[in-house]
Each structure stands twice: as C-alpha cells, then as structure tokens.
Write a structure and sequence with these properties.
single chain, 348 residues, mainly alpha, Serine Threonine Protein Phosphatase 5, Tetratricopeptide repeat, 4 domains, two-stranded antiparallel sheet, 14 helices, 69% helix, elongated
Length: 348
C-alpha cells in the first residue's frame, strides 16, 4: 500500500479520480479504505470551514474564525466604540411654556387639581387655571369645571365663566357641585344689578337642592341663598324709601320709580331699574356727605364764631353808649354857649 504524492484539490476532482486509479495511484484494496477516510476528513474540514466566518484583522488581514469568537469580537468592538448621539427633535419654546408638565413625569390629575387650589388661594389665577384645565383634560370631573369657572370669574373672563357654570347645571345636574354652580351664577347676577335673575336662581337653588352644601366651606347653600334674597329685597325697600318712592309692596315701588324716571314700567328689578336706583342713591349719599361735612366744619369753628359774634355785639353796645355820651356832652356844650351868648357883660 502506498500513496503517490498528489494535491488534495486534484484528488477531489471527480473527473480525475478514475484516471488516478488507472495510473496506479491506489494499487490495493486497502487503498479504498484510505480514500474513504480521506473523504471523511475532507468533509469534516469543509463543514468546520463552513461554520467559520471571515473577519478583518488590522495585523493579519482577512482570516477565518469560529462563529462564537466572531460574536465575542463584535460585542467587544461595540462596547469599545464611541456611541454616536442621535439627532433629537427640536422642541419649540412655546411648547415648553404652555405644557405645565414639560420636562417631568406626568402626575395624576388629582395632584394637578390640588396644585391649582394652592395657586387659587394665593391669588395666582393664571397658574391655577393651567392646573385645573390640565386635570380636567386628563380625567373630567365636575368639580374641576367648577373651579375653572371660578378662576375665569377672577380673571374677568365672564363669558367663559358663564359657559362653564351653565354646562355643569345642564349636563351634570346630579353632581356634587351643581348647586355650587347655580349659586355662583346667582351671585354673579346679584353683583351685576340683575336682581330679578339672581332672585330666581336663588329660589331655584333652595327648591332644587334643599340639602346642598358649599364645596369649599361646607356651609348650607339653602340658608345662604335665603339670606342673599332677603338682603336684596331689604336693600331695595330701604333705598326706594330714602329716595321717596315707597309703596305698599316692592313691585309697586319699582313701578313708581320707573314711572318717575321714564323707564319701562315692568315692576321688576331688572338691570336698568336697579342700576338707576343705585345711581340716584349714590348721588343722594354724596349730597348727604357734603351736608354732614359742612355741619362738622361748623361744629369745629362754632366756638370761634360765637366769640366773634359776642365780641361784635359788645363792641356795638359800647359804641352806642359812647355815642350817647358824646351827644349828651355836645348838647351840654351847646347850652353853655347859648348862656354865654345871652349873658350881658355891660351889666356886670
């Protein structure tokens, strides 16, 4: 058994294999076993070569290495590499200022509501409104809408305040703050001289929510509404009586005032009537204040006035006495002159 020295590539060439047998490269039966072993070794080598990967080494060039070693090389190269920062999206400054939770983790809406209440107590109504509105946008609650409306009132955004309160009364009449919204509306109309609407809303509050409690203080809204209604009526009766327009009842007093001031004779306390009554009352108060001021000034200088008047009277009396004496002396002198003139000196 012997082998001729041939190349492996030449041995694997199928077309050359029979020729090699013919040329006596393999002369014995055992040589076939050797060929089979060579084929097995070559197959294993090819399989192992297939499991290897090409890698570039800066010193050795392109080399074959195992897959496991290649994976380790990739991980180590990724860790050693300097990370390239990703291009971040530019955020406008308007978004930063308008978004109250920008740059921090979003909290539950209850925390924003409580934060808004703190701002409201400190009279920072702009920040209070931001927190109330964000809390309501995350999870709507009727109490959030109520405090949004209250904040609008302090910011003089009356239309938005009225819309918020009317929305609560219309869409959520059974909520815990519907009576508060009704009270806020009644109070607004009272403060703006529409006593007719205010009284109707206070009456509706008393009848519709007899056990309603104020959300912020816990007071009974029914009693507060009754007190406000009594105050409005007592105020108008008192003012109209001062101005001279008293009648048997309040509607008749309104009619008397409206007729005297050329207003629509409705007999109710609408905006025009209440505003005119308050205007005349303010003018009456101004005149009264001027009169009282003059009286106070007179009281302050009354002693001096008495002294001046008393002194003037004494001086006048003394002057009359003096003039009387002067006249008497003058008459006496005239009589003496007459006696002297009538005296006959020759007879003496």
């Amino acid at each position: 058994m012997y082998f001729r020295k041939i190349s492996f590539r030449k041995f694997l060439t199928v077309s050359r294999f029979p020729d090699l047998l013919k040329q006596g490269a393999i002369r014995h039966r055992t040589s076939c076993v050797g060929v089979i072993w060579l084929l097995l070794i070559a197959g294993v080598s090819l399989v192992r070569a297939a499991e290897k990967e090409l890698m570039y080494d800066p010193e050795k060039g392109i080399i074959f290495i195992d897959k496991d070693e290649a994976a380790k090389e990739k991980i180590s190269s990724n860790e050693s590499a300097v990370p390239v920062p990703k291009k971040q999206k530019r955020v406008s400054s308007h978004k930063k200022t308008s978004d109250i939770h920008y740059g921090r983790k979003k909290d539950p809406p209850e925390l924003y509501f409580k934060s808004g209440l703190e701002y409201y107590k400190n009279k920072d109504y702009n920040n209070a409104l931001k927190n109330f509105r964000f809390a309501d946008s995350v999870e709507h609650h009727a109490e959030y809408s109520l405090w949004i409306g209250k904040t609008y009132r302090h910011l003089s955004r009356i239309k938005e305040m009225l819309k918020a309160m009317f929305t609560i009364i219309r869409d959520e009449p059974d909520s815990d703050v519907a009576d508060d919204a009704l009270f806020e509306l009644a109070l607004y109309y009272q403060m703006n001289d529409d006593y007719e609407k205010a009284e109707k809303l206070f009456t509706q509050l008393i009848e519709q929510y007899p056990f309603g409690l104020a959300y912020s203080s816990g007071d009974e809204l029914r009693e507060i509404a009754r007190e406000q209604r009594r105050n409005m009526r007592a105020e108008m009766i008192n003012v109209l009586s001062i101005l001279g327009f008293i009648a048997d009842d309040l509607p008749s007093s309104y009619l008397k005032f409206q007729k005297a001031n050329k207003l629509p004779e409705t007999g109710i306390g609408d905006v025009a009537t209440i505003s005119a009554i308050k205007k005349q009352h303010l003018e009456y108060q101004r005149k009264e204040e001027e009169r009282v001021l003059k009286e106070q000034q007179f009281e302050r200088y009354r002693v001096w006035i008495y002294v001046v008047v008393f002194g003037g009277a004494i001086n006048s009396i003394l002057l009359v006495v003096l003039l009387t004496r002067v006249r008497a002396r003058k008459k006496h002198v005239e009589e003496l002159q007459k006696i002297i003139t009538d005296l006959d000196v020759a007879k003496l």
